[in-house]
Amino acid sequence: MSNVRVAAFSLSLDGFGAGPNQNIDNPLGIRGTELHQWFFPTKAFSSMHGGPEGESTSIDNGFAERSFENVGAWILGRNMFGPIRGPWNDDSWKGWWGDSPPYHVPVFVLTHHARATLTMDGGTTFYFVTDGIESALTKAREAAGGKDVRIGGGVSTIRQYLSAGHIDEMHLAFSPVLLGEGESLFHGINASELGFTVSSVVSGERATHVTLAR
Amino acid sequence: MSNVRVAAFSLSLDGFGAGPNQNIDNPLGIRGTELHQWFFPTKAFSSMHGGPEGESTSIDNGFAERSFENVGAWILGRNMFGPIRGPWNDDSWKGWWGDSPPYHVPVFVLTHHARATLTMDGGTTFYFVTDGIESALTKAREAAGGKDVRIGGGVSTIRQYLSAGHIDEMHLAFSPVLLGEGESLFHGINASELGFTVSSVVSGERATHVTLAR
Questions:
Q1: Residues 6 or more apart whose Cβ sits within 8 Å of residue A159
Q2: Whether the predicted pLDDT of A27 surpasses 90
Q3: Chain B residues inside the 8 Å CB shell of A15
């Protein structure tokens, strides 16, 4: 079955999915990287980004690996693709991930500014979608060919798809940190009214993994 | 050492400490009792409220029991004491807990409306404090005689003491539910800036126990 899902999305215990003041030096906002301390030591991470091979048998790694399984297309907000705001000045920015991004499938980037499709090494193609979240989802579903569409983030993008009722399943990784400020995932969104209930809560090595479904 | 602490305080995974629309039928707000499903099966609960003896060896019970240890005085918001709003019409309301409330120490109830001190069975005395949270804390510290002051709740009371910088330690029990709406503990409060960090995260049988300290 093809689901629209959020997976391996990190939150602080006070509910923030990114810190404040995102910029090129702090792509996840100030202290935002603290949210992902559970992910960095996993084999899933090292497989994507190189470096010494990470933990392959941890609970955290299991969740990280499953987050990539059966994903046929991604949708990303523009700020997750890069730090540039406003019109694209040129095509030099090709994402945070180098020549061979860890997606390996079509990735639809939400933006208000048109840009030519970008074909990267390893099967990743970035499509820039300027006509809204519904259009991006339609395109992503088509591209996914029956597999899942993963809404990669950031917080604002997930909130838009949540509010529109498009997300079927969410795996959230609560990291043992308090950010105090930043981008709240749920504030002002009634996840219960949207039909979500808690499917499972699993204590990992460095995060508490919560799965929500409806 | 005498600490001001919050303990065994239940939250939903989306950060609510009570549901909306508190009233006499829903003292914890709509669906608020779902937050406390971890507590009801414990021996700590049955010791307080009677009924068949609860679990004595569970992780959840350990946290519940420790929440009562070394507590010399409590502070409660008025809505936690009862459903009556505005002036006390008479003295017939004596709390939700019957003749012998499970506190057994002085309890300071924050209210805007004066009322005579209420001496209950089993060592609980309710004092009604009309001159603010600082005054209540001073009185509670004195009454506690070197033991801890426990801020029992509800959410609004904890938020006031948090914002004023008076809370030293918090044990929060995250229940596996989404409330969607209600009273958010942290919204608009920067727990990190207040100096809190996460001391521990422990997976219990029916809740995830998070301890914050500063």
A1: A185, A189
A2: no
A3: 14-15, 186
Find all residues with CB under 8 Å of B193, minimum gap 6, and list them: A180, A181
Rounded distance between C-alpha atoms, residue B119 and residue A165, angstroms: 53
Q: Which CATH superfamily is domain B4-83+99-213 in?
A: Dihydrofolate Reductase, subunit A (3.40.430.10)
Q: Which of B67, B54, B33 is nearest to B152 (CA)?
A: B67
State which amino acid sits at residue A127.
Y
* Average of per-residue pLDDT values in chain A: 95
Roughly what angle, to the nearest 10 degrees, separates helices B133-144 and B155-163? 90
Averaged over A17-40, what is the pLDDT? 89
Say what the pTM is: 0.93
The residues, ordered by sequence, that sit 6+ positions from B32 with a Cβ below 8 Å of its Cβ are: B18, B19, B22, B26, B179, B182
Rounded to 10 deg, the angle between the A155-163 and A133-144 helix axes is 90
Tokens of A113: 């500014």
**Which amino acid type is present at position A97?**
W
pLDDT over 80 (residue A1): no
Q: Enter the ipTM.
A: 0.90
* Helix, strand or coil, per DSSP, at residue A122: helix
Q: What proportion of chain B, given as a percentage, has pLDDT over 90?
A: 85
| CA gap A145, A127 in Å, rounded | 16
d(CA B173, nearest CA chain A) in Å: 11
Structure tokens at A95: 């994402």
Looking at the complex, does the CB of residue A178 fall below 8 Å from at least one CB of chain B?
Answer: yes
| Residue matched to tokens 């699993």 | A202
Residue boundaries of the structural domains of chain A: 4-83+99-213
Tokens of B107: 């309890």
Listed residue (A202, A80, A74) closest to A141, CA to CA = A74
Q: Tell me which chain A residues have a C-beta less than 8 angstroms from the C-beta of B15.
A: 14-15, 186
The segments of chain B whose pLDDT lies below 70 read: 1
Burial (CB < 10 A; 0-12, 13-18, 19+), residue A165, is: exposed
